[in-house]
Amino acid sequence: MTSFTGFRRREARAINSGNLRWADTGPTDADFIAARGLSGEPLGALLERLKWGNDHRAYARCVHLLGERFYDRKKRNVVKALCHTAIREWLDENCKKCGGRGLETDKFRNMTTCTKCNGTGLHQYADYERAHMANLAAGSWKKYERDYETVLECLRGAVSSHTVGAMKAFEEVAA
Ligand SMILES: [Zn+2]
User: What is the model's pTM?
Assistant: First the structure.
């Protein structure tokens, strides 16, 4: 059974790999590439490509598609800066203290749960940080807060349905 993180790591390697030969000896990078394309979730696939494949050409397209997702839900346009901010936040989501491990070393050199993120490994973005990234006055963030939550939901939804879709396609491709 392929685990989520295992799949993601393998996917990242496959994106960066020039080795696309098909082999009879178990799944190859080519299988992963094929599965990615079959996930049925173009925004999620592009976001993963941007993050794990360091493919910066995907960025503008991600912003555009994310804006479209918002429009589909709310029937109005979103402030583009919110899409930029959500993508940047997602690209840099690790806790600044523990680097995303969720663990830190105490003064007795024992590993303990990170006190900053409580072990989640995620950085909890504050309103002022988001406003700053979006180039908006910190005091005006309340006005954008709900739209921003929607943008984040669209983004996370796209990423998780891409992962689910790609894993399913991978099981079929590699079977
Ligand atoms: Zn932490």
Answer: 0.77
